Amino acid sequence: xxxxxxxxxxxxxxxxxxxxxxxxxxxxxxxxxxxxxxxxxxxxxxxxxxxxxxxxxxxxxxxxxxxxxxxxxxxxxxxxxxxxxxxxxxxxxxxxxxxxxxxxxxxxxxxxxxxxxxxxxxxxxxxxxxxxxxxxxxxxxxxxxxxxxxxxxxxxxxxxxxxxxxxxxxxxxxxxxxxxxxxxxxxxxxxxxxxxxxxxxxxxxxxxxxxxxxxxxxxxxxxxxxxxxxxxxxxxxxxxxxxxxxxxxxxxxxxxxxxxxxxxxxxxxxxxxxxxxxxxxxxxxxxxxxxxxxxxxxxxxxxxxxxxxxxxx
Length: 313
Fold this sequence. Notes:
Blueprint: H1 5-11, H2 15-26, H3 37-46, H4 57-64, H5 72-99, H6 104-117, H7 121-137, H8 144-161, H9 165-172, H10 175-201, H11 208-217, H12 220-226, H13 234-249, H14 255-267, H15 273-290, H16 296-312
Helix pairs in contact: 1-5, 2-5, 6-7, 6-8, 7-8, 8-9, 8-10, 10-13, 13-14, 14-15, 15-16
């Protein structure tokens, strides 16, 4: 039991979480299987290390089943009750995340879907709008594009059922912007890690050719034409990533990096500090990669540093 999944989970629980977990397993709504309080009381005394010499399977069994003989079948009995308590501990972690507000977006998304299933469309729309506000207020999240696509899908479902095609169109037409911006953002992240692992660990991932094929066939003019921008510079952020990737297609292509830099300089003041720093690291890494091959990148890197330094200070 000392190396079990249950003990690994409980070792990560704080004292406050252990207290709340006790209430959780006592609730007949969450626990419909058996009384776990005796086992919990044993575990609580040895939390969080569970490394006492007195903490053995045989001792646990004898305290749970007084008068019964400990034998090979005893381990099976303990594993059953341990597995059931593990399931409760996992449910508690998720529920506790909802209860403490850690997973507000995920809670609202589930609530929106539940309202839609029950044909309660006005409450569904209200909760969906709350989630849109959450996304708008925290653009540093890595799953920013995925979240927008999820919410626009829910908006579309709501407005279709409400027979409001104009509102549906207004929301779903933005989806193409986040769909392609999300692709490019993920491709950029993948390619940056691909290059790092190649350089530092000589590790090669599959997918590199697919990413660069997408970049090669991507039409930035069509992207500009087809997608409306939003108030968060999403379109321009996508283009910075695109031109960063395009500069890797041809090592002699200096124009793409310069275009990316110019877009970055243009929107710098309208970006969050997170985005400013994230893109600086991305673009500066490209300059440092090519410095030993071409002095052009020394000048580009210096311009990047001077511009950002002046704006930050």
